[in-house]
Amino acid sequence: MLAAAPARAQETPPDPNAPSANPTGKVTVEQPAPPADPTPDAQANPDATATATEEGEIVVTGIRASLARSAEIKRNSTLIVDSVSAEDIGKLPDVSIADSLARLPGVTAQRVEGRDQNLSIRGLGPDFSTTLFNGREQVTVGDNRGVEYDQYPSEFFRNVNVYKSPDASLIAAGISGTVDLRSLRPLDQRDRSVVVSARGQYNDIGKRNPDGKRIGYRVSGAFVDKFADDTFGVAIGLAATEAPTNYDKYEAWGDAGYPTVATPQGDAFILGGAKPYVQSNLLKRYGGVATLEWQPSDKFHSTFDALYTHFNEVQRLRGIEFPLAYNVAPTNVVVRDGFVQSATFQPAYTVQRNDYQEREADLFSFGWNNDFAVTDTTHLNIDAAWSRAERTDFLLETYSGTGYNGTGARDTINITRQDNGLYSIVPTINYADTNVIRITDPGGWGYNGTTAVVQAGFLNRPKFTDDLKSLRASLAGEFGDLGVVKGYEVGANYSQREKRAAFTSSFLCPKGGGTGCTVASGTPTSVAVPADAVLDDTVSLGFLGVPQMLTVDPLKIYDLLNPVFDNRPESLAKDYSVKEKVWTGYAKLVIDGEAGGKALKGSLGVQVVHTDQSSTGRIAGLTGGVVTLADVGDGVKYTNVLPSATMSVELIPSGFVKLGASRTMVRPRIDQERISQNVSINPANVGLGSNPANSPFSSEGGNFALRPYKSTNVDVSLEKYFPSGGYVALTGYFKSISDYVDANNSVIYDFSPLLPSLTPAQQAIVQAQNAQFGLFRNPANSGEGELIGAEATVSLPFRAITTALDGFGVFASGSYTYSAIRLASNPARTITLPGLSDWVMNGTAYFEKNGFQARATYRYRSDFLAEVRGLSASPELNTAQSEGILDAQIGYEFQSGPLQGLAILAQAKNLTDQEFVQYVGGDERQVRRYQRYGTDYYLGLTYRF
């Protein structure tokens, strides 16, 4: 939960041969760490972070205790693992869990909405890892499986372990790794703890919208105690956060963003259009965690965990869409280095946006673990868990312009390319003038599948539920005398997960006449901007040259508009349900002994995983202007065998060679497993021949029979731990990936049941040409590839070099990863993995002594394929530029006197003001997206009673 127990010099942690077999966490994260600087004179000369107790124990806290605890977890694990440990109760080393994990070797975070949210491990994105809470697989409030880590308050966790090699007892392991969030066990704590903390946040980029915020807060409290002669423990934590984010964002308009135009100097790239926005987000999150632990004797141990978080985020977006080169020829063109440097446009229309988006989510997680000592050497463990997430979005768009469908006043716009690749956009129209601007459909975008509608706004209201239940039983014991084969573990796990998605969308048009928002029925094409909806302060897009724009309350505009249900097939086919029933059996032999005079630990094991996978949904199509729906459902069953072997040999004192060989799998995106289809019928294609691409029938959707990604893995790690603290490690890894999901796969499909939708004459032509066989675009396991890489890590307290530098230290890592993926849809092209940066480097320098602490962390990652939400919230991949982010913190804890127990901490995030930039065409000059978040500053107080 919220705590990190003090490190005690006299205690030695047990050997964690079973990383997650016991979700109580006893074998991995609950052992106390050794002192940060276990030097001979440590007790004689304790400093502020290593103080002596009455019993003479050395108690280490703060940054050095955190690093020491993480190092001890790594050292004692037979697996290849990296960890982040809390420095103290409610105090992970960074602002969020994702920030902390992004400091680990080979782990990177992608910023979403200004926050570190999605993790890539060893170059494999969030779809290739799994997340556990105390050893139990978790649901997510996201659209798919990838966990959005900002749903978890960081105060709730004592350790976060990233397992990079698997074990047979590690259920639901990922291909890239497994992130295990570990909470505190109250019976392991020495004394009662009551801790409260408060922290303020300040966003230096400024309030980008008048109804946004730039100041936030975070408060938390924790209570830990033991009762009944230390046989019953209670840990309770509460946390509340209100965190603002403000940023400038820019997007090149159109599919590619940069078409070419003929000029006297030859063809040159030109900006197709631009969508500059300013955005203000406000995240509110409230949560609680509780752990009850009961151990009346050595024969029985029971632990109950409960976690709840409520998540609410409001986003306010305002901006203008400028369709330029896609709609009109430029004048006054100046070309430089193959790009149009400046030009003048007079587009037919521009679209102003005042949008409001709200996400509401609740996450519940419960787990009950019971451990029975059958004999002195045999234990039966039974674990039951349930987690559920519910999320509802309210995604409101409102549009305004000078007139409907390009009939209003036309602007004259001058663009000039800037050094950072963005274009300044200087208009001549005053976009804040309500005598010129009206609520309307400026581009004539509205179309219901058969006829034009007045789309002055649009509303999406998706709802997701994710439910996961599991029951696990395992039996572990020891053999008598079998040499290095010390023991065994056998177990079984059953889980049932169901994710449902329901989408409701509506066209929004002016009230006052017509039906169905259609133009033909007389729906008003525009309405004046109501004075009471206009905000006192206007929004500026000054970062691109637009001085001001219409700034209204979009919820008041929404009240003026008439919603009409969107029943287009592409909207109706989004609804689905996916259910997975998974039976996992496993067995392993535990190795612990000596071989050739060297200490040897490890395991040999196998998992057998049987899956019953099914989906329900609908096939939606449009025939003769009438929408047809058909409810469908189907499923598939399959079995996978996953062997694994791990070995750890202590070749020299405190020097280890760790080896791992395994077969792992991870399930595809849930939306790719849906059965729903969106069918299109185009009579204009009748008579074009037998080529399936020219068929009048086509479809796109999911694949209910999709199988997991699979990977054959080899891992090796060389690790040396220093007597005075710290370690160095060098790790290599290779993955041969099969059954890679190709999202662009197409198969030939027989659409004969749809022939009656055509006229008899058309049917005859289609059948004569065999053109009823069209293309069905659905994902398939038709890709394969390889990944190879290396990581290097050093954790060095400078006292190991000289006592004159006591308190100083560094933690640094670097990794290089190469991947090559080949897809059946385009076998001639080799692609890289989404989320993979070839080079990743992290460095932390710290000082901690006499209650004072300071730390600076720099994170660098090279270019990578970044996934963001594109049109209609569909995922879109573009290359993101390399980025380097600097964070820092400084603090002081009072060690004595009336303020003893009080700690002050100041933090700064993104001191480099690093932008997030994506580009297309392999050319960094073709900027597709740009976001600038500024620097966040935090000031907090923590008090321990």
TrEMBL record:
<protein>
    <submittedName>
        <fullName>TonB-dependent receptor</fullName>
    </submittedName>
</protein>
<dbReference type="InterPro" id="IPR012910">
    <property type="entry name" value="Plug_dom"/>
</dbReference>
<feature type="compositionally biased region" description="Low complexity">
    <location>
        <begin position="39"/>
        <end position="53"/>
    </location>
</feature>
<dbReference type="InterPro" id="IPR036942">
    <property type="entry name" value="Beta-barrel_TonB_sf"/>
</dbReference>
<feature type="domain" description="TonB-dependent receptor plug">
    <location>
        <begin position="74"/>
        <end position="176"/>
    </location>
</feature>
<dbReference type="InterPro" id="IPR037066">
    <property type="entry name" value="Plug_dom_sf"/>
</dbReference>
<feature type="region of interest" description="Disordered">
    <location>
        <begin position="1"/>
        <end position="55"/>
    </location>
</feature>
<dbReference type="Pfam" id="PF07715">
    <property type="entry name" value="Plug"/>
</dbReference>
<keyword id="KW-0472">Membrane</keyword>
<keyword id="KW-0675">Receptor</keyword>
<dbReference type="InterPro" id="IPR010104">
    <property type="entry name" value="TonB_rcpt_bac"/>
</dbReference>
<keyword id="KW-0998">Cell outer membrane</keyword>
